[in-house]
Amino acid sequence: MPIDASAQIHPEARIADDVDIGPFTVIGPHVEIGSGTRIGPHVVISGHTTIGRDNQIFQFVSLGAEPQHRVYAGEPTRLTIGDRNTFREYCSVHRGTTIDQSETIIGDDNLLMAYVHVAHDCVLGNGITMANGASLAGHVRIGDFCILAGFALVYQFRRIGTMAFLAYCSGAQQDVPAFVRTAGAPAVPHGINSVGMRRRGYSNDEINAVKRAYRTIYRSKLRLEEAREALREPAENSPAVRVMLDSLDAAQRGIIR
Questions:
Q1: pLDDT tens by residue, 198-222
Q2: Catalytic hit among 48, 94, 117, 120
């Protein structure tokens, strides 16, 4: 097992035979790490943390630390990380709290760049990119293939829909529907993420259907409840509009306007 002699690995940690662990890294007793994962120097992995296969964890990353919440009283809450994720320098991801689901979850194929912070009880999907300094408060939900540009911030309990785009220094104080581009603090809508949709293989017909749905939400002067109802028929003929409508239906604290 390629573990540096200076690393401190608790004997009860469960680590696959081919995991690479760099100098001065510290891994606690309740940690599980899957095959093919590479861990750099000076990393700390603690708590009840499970890490899947083929992840890359760069130097000075902190995974599974206690949540920054006053109600936390030492409960054995969890952090669960999927496969093929990359955590760049100084990322921090905290485990959950008992006031939510007791677990922070990160899916597969995500890229978290330097200084990204993911707080307690967040749930991230797959294929997400969080650029340098982007941060999530507690209880945030991020859909698949979202992009959060540098220093983008998401307020607690908010939901960011599939393939949404938060521009540099965006501040999402309310939910962001799927496919919507945002900018500003507080974040406001600026059209749809058509570039991202094309890259993911969406057809022109689907992109145009989402553009029409966007106009229904943001240009028709309909209330949110009315816009939802107006989109139910188009959603029957467009999977992308269905995804957008689902993100509206999931919004419990309003959407950006």
A1: 999 999 999 999 999 999 999 999 9
A2: 120
